[in-house]
Amino acid sequence: MNDDIVRQVLNFRQSRNWEQFHNPKDLAISLSIEASELLENFQWKTSEEALDLKKENIADELADVLIYSIYLADALDLNIEDVVLNKLAKNERKYPVDKAFGRKDKYTDL
Amino acid sequence: MNDDIVRQVLNFRQSRNWEQFHNPKDLAISLSIEASELLENFQWKTSEEALDLKKENIADELADVLIYSIYLADALDLNIEDVVLNKLAKNERKYPVDKAFGRKDKYTDL
Amino acid sequence: MNDDIVRQVLNFRQSRNWEQFHNPKDLAISLSIEASELLENFQWKTSEEALDLKKENIADELADVLIYSIYLADALDLNIEDVVLNKLAKNERKYPVDKAFGRKDKYTDL
Amino acid sequence: MNDDIVRQVLNFRQSRNWEQFHNPKDLAISLSIEASELLENFQWKTSEEALDLKKENIADELADVLIYSIYLADALDLNIEDVVLNKLAKNERKYPVDKAFGRKDKYTDL
Questions:
Q1: What is the C-alpha R_g of chain A?
Q2: Rg (CA), chain C
Q3: Is-above-0.90 flag for pTM?
Q4: B16-49 tens-digit pLDDT
Q5: What are the UniProt keywords, alphabetically (chains A, B, C, D) (predicted)?
Q6: Which of A42, C35, D26, D79 is most buried, judging by how many CB atoms fall within 10 Å of its CB?
């Protein structure tokens, strides 16, 4: 996440004196709740219907997921981009292109 | 999210020919599942115990949440940073500093 | 839930001296985690594929959801069957048959 | 679940002609969403605060979890009580009392 975006998200919380309410466990709960609210836009619908009718709401919930991700990374003293790069490196090893190409099997079945 | 990170995540998928398996509804399901796996690190533990024992795993699951967020934004043809900025603007209006300072009430109760 | 089933589930926990670890918030977290593990069986699959390949696992996760529901009801000092009957009564009022027949609209749109 | 409760839940759906909208994958999604709505009552709160302020809402969401569990069991052609009993039997073998008494370790660590 661009440093400026991260700073804006953290400033938003700080200017309202809300850090006092944030702790890692409740941040993890919040992240899970927002992901569920995002999923709710697809309930009883096909992907097409959901994108047709609920795109703005999906975008808002995705934003909430990203905002809580920023708070969690901050609580863990981690940099968002390092977190992603480290996992991509692990995934490269678990799913080498020559074995994983075009296959949706879990790495233990490659 | 830094454009380079987004590109690396999308390239990872493309070089393995995996886009064929991705559709918005299943991406939303996946995002929810990863958020739940992140939360599982805090099950039966305090925030402190979880950060002490499970920090690497929490970071990995946070990465998975962010990676699926990138795929979803791509599926919706949205830019991650615009998505966050739009929501911050909405939140600014719902939670003006003078009313929301130090209060965890929902905006309907401000 | 049949009283005998409830009693067996509570006895299972008691004979292992596990009540000490249970508190309502972590029980709610656990219920959410198990529901997510159940959903994971449908990830990237159609309903038919999931039932074909993963029926036993779905049944096991459904059992975990029900077991945690029993622990939560116990923590709230509620009877499982009263809980369901009360909600059915509320749903009857929100979705009268003459208005709701064949319609999947939310009650606010009836 | 008492046969009568199951029948009342299935009748509620049938009299509104709603089975047409239910398929196992969307039922699994719905179950996950309801579990998350239940968990939301504990967000930013201790167990005590949540039970103090939100007990009725928690009971309603627990009912929704149980109702969707009944629909899922029906979709899988399974009996709710058999599902729970089978899992309890598996858990008995994974967590024998003499090894698991008073310990919250996962069975692989017993």
A1: 17
A2: 18
A3: yes
A4: 999 998 999 999 999 999 999 999 999 999 999 9
A5: Hydrolase
A6: C35
Are A72 and A83 part of one and the same domain?
no
- Residues D44, D87, single domain; the answer is no
Residues C10-28 pLDDT 10s = 999 999 999 998 999 999 9
Please answer yes or no on whether B32 and C33 come within 8 Å at the CB atom. no
Distance of residue C2 Cα from the nearest chain A Cα, in angstroms:
31
Could you give the CA distance from residue C35 to residue C66 in angstroms, rounded to a whole number? 10
Name the token pair of B45.
């533990």
| B54 shares its domain with B98 | no
Are residues D32 and D84 located together in one domain of the fold?
no
Q: Burial letters for A84-101: b for 16+ Cβ neighbours within 10 Å, e otherwise? A: bbbbbeebeeebeeeebe
Q: DSSP for B43-97?
A: TTS-HHHHHHHHHHHHHHHHHHHHHHHHHHHHHTT--HHHHHHHHHHHHHHHS-H
CA of B47 to nearest chain C CA: how many angstroms apart?
A: 12
* Alpha carbon distances (Å) from C6 to B16, C23, C68, D2: 48, 18, 11, 11
Shared domain for D89 and D61, answered yes or no, is: no
Cβ neighbours of A44 in D, within 8 Å: 21, 26
ipTM value: 0.94
Q: Do A43 and D21 touch (CB under 8 A)?
A: no
* Residue A21 DSSP class: G
